[in-house]
Specification:
Elements lengths: L5 E6 L6 H10 L5 E7 L10 H12 L9 E7 L3 H7 L4 E6 L2 H17 L4 E6 L9 H9 L10 H11 L13
Parallel strand pairs: 1-2, 1-4, 2-3, 4-5
Length: 178
């Protein structure tokens, strides 16, 4: 029997976007078990706490779990990525790339991670062109300022963003004087 191929897709997922879901869906074609690691990452000052993000990601990926035989587990982590990968027996770390600026950062990280554990490979998936510009940071900013984020996140995530930032009053526009 062949060894199970375990991959890890780490991120903050604050919130999970359609771009994240696209990378995850494509990653399931490469592994038997995909662990989606939700990082604590307090330095980024997440909008949603860790438990909320784990629940959000779990809910958003239900449709993919065990589709075509790939199992998806969503797990929080607060340690070094390579330590988490080793704890999960992952042999592949999957990273999404949107732009050249992502590559420069990721290139540095691969070098460091390879020094920490040369047995774990990093695989890069280019963002699908319709998702290349989506970043959780921008989605939060648009939602905070009252813009429409429905194209970038699922309807459930959009509702959570609107709840977090406060919905405009019923029948109002959310502008001063309403």
């Amino acid at each position: 029997m062949a060894t199970q191929r375990i991959g890890l897709y780490p991120g903050t997922f604050d919130p999970i976007t359609e771009g994240h879901r696209d990378i995850i869906e494509r990653a399931t074609k490469m592994v038997d078990l995909l662990i989606v690691g939700v990082a604590v990452n307090a330095d980024k000052g997440p909008l949603f706490n860790l438990e909320e993000r784990v629940q959000m990601v779990t809910r958003e990926l239900q449709y993919l779990n065990n589709r075509d035989g790939t199992i998806i587990h969503v797990k929080p982590f607060d340690n070094l990525l390579m330590h988490f990968a080793m704890e999960q027996n992952a042999r592949i770390i999957i990273r999404g790339l949107r732009a050249v600026s992502d590559f420069e950062y990721e290139f540095q990280m691969v070098g460091m991670n390879d020094r920490l554990n040369p047995d774990i490979e990093t695989v890069f998936l280019m963002a699908t062109d319709k998702y290349q510009f989506i970043a959780s940071r921008l989605v939060k900013e648009i939602a905070r300022l009252g813009g429409d984020v429905g194209e970038f996140v699922s309807p459930r995530v959009e509702a959570e963003l609107l709840d977090r930032f406060g919905r405009p009053p019923a029948g109002g526009t959310g502008t001063a004087g309403d």
